[in-house]
Amino acid sequence: MVQGTLQQHGNHAVVIGGSMAGMLAARVLAEHFAHVTIVDRDHWPAEPEFRAGVPQGRHVHIFLARGQQVLEQIFPGIGAKVIAAGAVPIDILNDLQYYSGTGAAPRFPSALRLYLSSRPLLETLVQQELARQPAITFRPGVEAVALVTDDAGRVAGVELRPRTGTVAAPTETLAADFVVDASGRDSRAPQWLTALGYDSPTQTTVDSHLGYASRIYRRPADAGQDWQALLIPEQAPAILRGGVIWPVEDDQWIVTLAGSGGDYPPTDDAGFLDYTRGMVHQALYTAIKDAEPLSPIYGYRRTANQLRHYERLKRLPANFIVVGDAVCAFNPVYGQGMTAAVLGAVVLQGCWQRYGRDRAALPLQFQRALARSNTTPWLLATGSDFRVPGVEGALPPRSARLTHRYLDGVLELITRDREIYTTFIQVAHLLKPPTALFRPTIAAKVGWHLLRQRGKAARADENPPATKQHEAHDQ
Nearest Cα to 432, choosing from 95, 64, 152, 87? Predict the structure, then answer.
């Protein structure tokens, strides 16, 4: 803990971390503070390129439809700018080929639109939007090492240290009237709170031991396929391998392979390609076997769902909140992180309008509202991961098994029912709540399908193959 008299800059907010969550929090705070400083260990590149602090930058990023809609509200016209910079616009239901365990989902024109790009491109354009705002300043090459408090115990700034690779580097105090921690999975906010005399949040972790590997290919001029993007998802517990081909700027494909339960995709040339042969469909293998690779293969295995329960704390210091992956980090395979960050910015705006005059009450009210916003994506991610053999984490109640079986029925029907497939995609993209999959017309179809499946299984048990009947008789 750091205390003392600070030189007040006046109406100044500090955001720790230049992630998507951090940049969007800064955009909200710029409407309420004269000055907002974003501090980060990295330097922001002038052009889209990989940053060490964003390890996901080398892999496919599925920015969900709901996230793109809200980002457009925050930065009007940004969608057109992303497309002008090379992003690929698609109709989700017409241009994306989705394979489930029962085959290919139907494809047909719809109003569900996405633009597909690399994460570095999207983050660079958001950073450029912020750089045009005079209230916002970027401070690269430094890391926050402690919170600073005033004599009343309120957070009043952060202690910064240059990122020189040594803890002996001199520190400086950056005064602030409000501080946001958006420093990601490695956030030290729990330790900072303990140092200030507050409780540390409890944590829930669900780890399906998923790993993935990605490579960039030149998009073939004519690869013989009639789709623009390809998705072969995992469907635990039976299908633990998945993969995606994502068209991005510069006529490139990002290809990401993923495997749960420790079935990690290799990062060598032969192993990477051979891994695709073990998928439930051969479409991805066929597409890339003759494609030209443009990058090395990059692996990543830090994928556990991680939720810190700040909303359960009884008190928090005034003038301090935590956002983004520092609160709730999802298994990246579900593509929810950036969308959750965008929705978190909306939560911050709403809480500021309601509690902005009460800095003591705002932190806890915000963390509770953010927890509610994260509920649906958390349930979608962990609901799938809980079904992976060997998953680590607190198991769901037995009642969840009924829900899982129902959702199995949904997935078995998406290949032949447009209503079910459309609703499934809308739920996956956070455009509709999960309850939409239980509306009467869908529930009737799924219920009838499950009854037929049960009937087939019962008849099979009553009439086993002849060889088994003889074996039973002989015994």
Answer: 64
The residues, ordered by sequence, that sit 6+ positions from 155 with a Cβ below 8 Å of its Cβ are: 147, 148, 149, 176, 178, 179, 317, 318, 319, 320
Q: How many CB atoms lie within 10 A of CB 76?
A: 10
Q: What is the pLDDT of residues 353-412, one digit of tens each?
A: 999 888 899 999 999 999 999 999 998 888 889 889 999 987 776 767 788 889 989 999
Closest CA to 178 of 202, 200, 150, 151: 150
Long-range contacts of 414-417 (CB under 8 A, 24+ apart): 414/98, 414/100, 414/105, 415/100, 415/102, 415/103, 415/104, 415/105, 415/106, 416/106, 417/445
- Give the C-alpha separation, 336 to 326, whole Å: 14
Q: Which positions ≥6 away from 228 have C-beta within 8 Å?
A: 88, 90, 95, 96, 247
| Contact (Cβ atoms closer than 8 angstroms) between residue 37 and residue 174 | yes
Domain range 209-300, its CATH number among 3.40.50, 1.10.10, 3.30.70, 3.30.1370: 3.30.70
Q: Which two tokens stand for residue 46?
A: 């002038």
DSSP 213-240: EEEEEEPPS--S-S-SEEEE--BTTTB-
What angle (nearest 5°) sits at the alpha carbon of residue 13, between those of residues 8 and 16? 120
DSSP string of 281-312? -SHHHHHHTTSPB-S--EEE----EEEE-GGG
Give CA–CA dist 220/291, Å, rounded: 6
pLDDT in tens, 147-206: 999 999 999 999 999 987 566 678 899 999 999 999 999 999 999 999 999 999 999 999
CATH topology for 2-63+120-205+304-381 is FAD/NAD(P)-binding domain (3.50.50)
Sign of CA dihedral 425, 211, 88, 125: positive
Residues 161/146, Cβ–Cβ less than 8 Å: no
Q: Please, what is the end-to-end C-alpha distance for the chain in angstroms?
A: 75
Kind and range of the H or E run holding 167: none
For the whole model, what pTM was predicted? 0.91
